[in-house]
Amino acid sequence: MASTLGNTLRMEKLDLAIGAGHGMTIPLILLATVAWWIWLRKKAHRESGLPGTFGLPFIGETLTYVAKMKTPLANFVDLKTQKYGPLFKSSLFFRETVFASDLETVKMIVAKEGRSFVSDYPTSFALLLGRFNGLNLQGENWKRLRRYVMSTIMRVDLLKERMADIEDLVVKTLDSWTDDGRTIYVEDETKTIAFNITAFIVLNLRPGKVSHTLQQDYYPLIEGMFSLPINLPWTIYGKAVKARERILKNLEEFLESRPVTDDVFGNYVKLLEEELPPGSPAGLKHEMGLDLITSLLFAGHDTTAATMVFAVKYIGENPNVLAELRKEHEELLSRKKPGERVNWDDCKTLTFSNNIITETLRMCNISTTVFRKSLEDIHVGEYVIPKGYQVLPYFRSVHFNPEIYPDPYTFNPFRYQESGGSKLPFFGFGGGARLCPGMDLARAELCLFLHHLVMKFESWELLGNDVVSFFPFPRLSKRLPIRVKRRKV
Ligand code: HEM
Ligand SMILES: *[C@@H]1O[C@H](CO)[C@@H](O)[C@H](O)[C@H]1NC(C)=O
Ligand SMILES: *[C@@H]1O[C@H](CO)[C@@H](O)[C@H](O)[C@H]1NC(C)=O
């Protein structure tokens, strides 16, 4: 249906072209080309054999999808999978879409990045994070950006040096969690921790006014990334556009006032000077640099903060997990000299802590899916994923498949210690060539966070019944209010 309407619209454009009164040959050739193209599309649809429906014309099933995403009760993909099986078509955000939720197909899609499939995020991402942000880039521009990120801020030796600073930012916030009966809203606190760390890593920005203003503007921006791009003052998207303008203005001011230019932004612009074809406009390099920074601040902070929130919740609900986690960190301290700091290599040895991070990410669905496009017709069993479809490998279904994760709705970090546990398929950081480049940094931040959480607090009480709202990212409706009990030392 959606495509039929699309075709009608294209036909109207063509009528206008004919009306404009060129000779007859060109319109005829055009008409024939369009008819042929439509015929090919129709054929592809028929032959794909994919179950599922495209829903309403144009808008497709977008509204149902968004409505169902907002409630944890009836997940759109679960309902559809029950009806049609693990591979089905739909139409979302004006695109013909295929959902894949069985392990083999999910693995295949992620592994064939750049060949049969390519990263293809919604236009609203490109509009709000900039067209040169990592997720929307493909080909040479993507490879250059990825190489640059991996060889600069994500270099292990650099991250090792920064552990003490990261730890200071974690400790500063946790030390402010007093146990005089006050309510702590964990979501607010962890957002600030994660933003301060990311701003420090990416911009060398120390907490202060600039950092605070930047941070506040990110939340309306993120909301807008998953909304319909209708730019009016009162729409979610319109507010996001305004937030982006303020972020860029503040970043520009900061970049102009910074004393050294030998940093993530400056060095990237220098690299572009060497690598872009000669004569590329200077404005382009500057724009690409800004897009790198804005997208790193986005990708690095809200994800990590949400993981911290859900870790506090799940550990708080499971005293046996808390006890085991504390044991691991006490043993770590007993191996270290008094006053010696927790470092990168320590975090690598903390198996149980890392299992908690994995299990938290599995349970809270921060990475539900990634956005891909098919570059060719792809045969999957008896079906064909036609070329040009939006393809969504649905990690969430794999993570909650009872045959892969027995008793999937239970938070159980011990499952990874059982035989075969270390081989469980996990897509919390994506996979394939686009595997999250910030994974090690995120794990290190979370390790330090968990360390101080269990060493400073005896326990915490979860106040209020938070409801999960899952759009665009998992959130708790009450921002996870807790009351803490400090440990006596
Ligand atoms: C718990 C925290 C995090 C989670 C759950 C997470 C998740 C993900 C996922 C699933 C992807 C894959 C997207 C795709 O394949 O299309 C990704 C990509 C990315 N992440 Fe993360 N991430 C986290 C933390 C970070 C941090 C701390 C940074 C950097 C400061 C970061 C920077 C990026 C970038 C730049 C990409 C794009 C990579 C590419 O397209 O090649 N992430 N992340
Ligand atoms: C993070 O930054 C904000 C403002 O930018 C500041 O108020 C806060 O104290 C900082 N937090 C930490 C843990 O340094
Ligand atoms: C994650 O997805 C599962 C399965 O759909 C659901 O049961 C669970 O409530 C979700 N968790 C969050 C935090 O949204």
Automatic annotation (TrEMBL):
Gene Ontology cellular component annotations, sorted alphabetically: membrane
Species for this entry: Ceratodon purpureus
Listed cofactors: heme
Pfam families in the cross-refs: p450
Keywords: Heme, Iron, Lipid biosynthesis, Lipid metabolism, Membrane, Metal-binding, Monooxygenase, Oxidoreductase, Steroid biosynthesis, Transmembrane, Transmembrane helix
Main location: membrane
Localization annotation: Membrane
Name of the protein in its database record: Cytochrome P450
Molecular function in Gene Ontology: heme binding; iron ion binding; monooxygenase activity; oxidoreductase activity, acting on paired donors, with incorporation or reduction of molecular oxygen
Family: Belongs to the cytochrome P450 family.
Gene3D superfamilies with a match to the protein in the record: Cytochrome P450
Binding residues annotated for heme, in chain numbering: C436
